[in-house]
Design a protein that fits this description.
There is one protein chain. The chain has a domain at 7-152: TATA-Binding Protein (2-Layer Sandwich). The protein has four helices and six strands, in the order H-E-E-H-E-E-H-E-E-H. The chain has helices at residues 7-16, 48-60, 80-83, 121-219, and strands at residues 24-31, 34-44, 65-68, 72-77, 88-98, 101-109. The longest helix is centred in the last third of the chain and has 99 residues, at 121-219. It is rod-shaped and about 150 Å long.
Length: 221
């Protein structure tokens, strides 16, 4: 997926990620300027724009001249496995059903007759495979992109968790260091107070000696 995928979007995709069977149905659809027989398949999780882009590329691979307005028109597509060297016109349209599903409609104009399973059984089977394989690839590629985004999101939150754990360890280490410093400071305070008491005694003794000397000095006549 080109844009960033949020956790909420990933949860939506995960909720929708049930068993997805890609199957092609035949129905009468409004395509190619009228009501015609067409092949219809559901594509999951792929964006409509991506579906259209990939289908255009696929049709160009059949040497078709591709244009698009309301639908994708592949003029004179040469699908040899279906019609040998006889070109055909292929019409396709994508209809968004939901955020996770798109309806993909494809009609094959064989030149006066639209492909159908009754009149063109062999060609229909080939066309059905082409459409199904395309839908399957689009779905798998889309889900792979979602998986990569989910993996990236998981890796990111794991990295964030690792950072938090590292920070927690550092903080606990700081606490232990502070505890040791506090303990040493408390011991140093006790030593300091004891040293102060000793010095006070020394000061008193020194003061007495000085006072005695001064007294003796005052008596000299």
């Amino acid at each position: 997926m080109k844009k960033a995928i949020t956790l909420a979007m990933l949860l939506l995709f995960a909720t929708a990620a049930q068993a997805q069977k890609i199957s092609v149905k035949e129905s009468n659809e409004n395509i190619g300027g009228g009501s015609h027989n067409a092949l219809v398949v559901t594509i999951y999780d792929a964006k409509p724009d991506d579906i259209e882009k990939e289908w255009k590329s696929k049709m160009k691979g059949y040497d078709a001249k591709v244009s698009s307005k309301k639908e994708i028109f592949a003029d004179n597509a040469l699908i040899k496995e279906m019609g040998g060297n006889d070109p055909m016109d292929v019409y396709a349209r994508v209809e968004k059903v939901s955020d996770t599903e798109s309806k993909f409609i494809v009609g094959f104009d064989l030149g006066g007759a639209w492909l159908n399973s009754k009149d063109h059984a062999d060609k229909y089977k080939i066309a059905e495979k082409i459409v199904r394989d395309f839908a399957l690839k689009m779905t798998k590629d889309a889900v792979a992109d979602i998986r990569k985004a989910a993996q990236k999101k998981l890796d990111n939150v794991k990295d964030q968790q690792a950072d938090l754990e590292k920070k927690n360890k550092e903080l606990k280490g700081d606490i232990e260091t502070y505890k040791e410093k506090i303990k040493k400071a408390e011991e140093d305070i006790k030593t300091n107070e004891s040293d102060q008491a000793k010095k006070k005694t020394e000061i008193e003794a020194a003061q007495k000696v000085l006072d005695d000397i001064i007294a003796r000095e005052a008596k000299i006549d």
